[in-house]
Amino acid sequence: MLSPRRVRELLAEACRLAGLGAVPEAPVALRVFVEGALFNTLSRQLGISNALDVSEQIRGALVLALRDDLHEEASGIRLRSRSSGPLPAVLVVSRASLVVFLLRDLLSDGAPVTQLQSLEALENHLRERRPQRALIIVDRRHPCVGVEACATLLEHATKHSTVVWWGAQEAERGEVAARLTDGPALLAADLEMDLADLGVLCRRAMELM
Asked: Within 13 Å and on the Cβ side, how many CA atoms surround 116?
């Protein structure tokens, strides 16, 4: 569909959009690039339908090319979990399917990853799972809940659970820390943390749970 020259032009444009000097090589960063900046570039230049077709072909190639790398990254979670019981579920409270997609790449071999898009869905899921522990990622870059979620987490998440509060301003992170003092463990991620680093943070949190 695309000539080699056109491919280079589109990749260069996507790199500029992502603020990168070149296409990333690390597995998670590459998936972020493909699903984010590259897809946006393809959509603008080729139209949504063609962008979806091209992206689907790229995803298929990445599954084969990165299978071993992603499996190696995920396998550490299974081997190094401190608990003798089953690994916790991963709940991603986010509007962005990209966040869920990438975390599934890293964590699905070790634990189920579920997307929740409302405070009601979060509360219902925690109620149904209680007293089981969970890793709960609250995405404030693509938000569908705010600090009001703290009350739900305090009431329904076990103290053996961990909350990753990602993408909020410093003042909000401080407020969340104060509200969850007597609740689940909190990892308040820096505003500048990108999606690839979020994946690393979640892996490490799982290792400690």
From this structure: 23
